[in-house]
Amino acid sequence: MNAKADSFNSIAVLAHPMVAEAAEEAKLVTRYLKDRKLAAVDGYLNDETLRQRVREGEFDVVVALGGDGTVLRAGHLSAI
Question: Which contacts qualify for 19-28: CB closer than 8 Å, 24 or more apart?
């Protein structure tokens, strides 16, 4: 990761709800980020509470894990 920690404050790691490996990886990514003193949360892309937080602009970065559709959905969600 080349970005400085102060260039963003919070990160959401969203996993496809039907891909078990994505949820497992989301937890690993979140742990990695937290170990580096970054604020990060993980959850499923279909979690309405987390989706609302993304829509409200709470996160500076959204990471999507799953597949092409997951990335497209997360991008659309973030663009609103």
Answer: 19/65, 19/66, 19/67, 19/70, 22/65, 22/66, 22/70, 25/65, 26/63, 26/65
Q: What is the pTM of this model?
A: 0.86
| Domains along the chain with CATH numbers | 5-79 (3.40.50.10860)
Q: What is the pLDDT of residue 39?
A: 96
The mean of the pLDDT values for the chain is 91
Both tokens of 20, joined, read: 């078990």
Q: Which residues contact 43 (CB under 8 A, 6 or more apart)?
A: 12, 13, 14, 15, 26, 50
Instruction: Give the helix, strand, coil percentages of the chain, each rounded to 5.
Output: 50, 20, 30
> Residue 80 has what pLDDT?
67
What amino acid occupies position 7? S
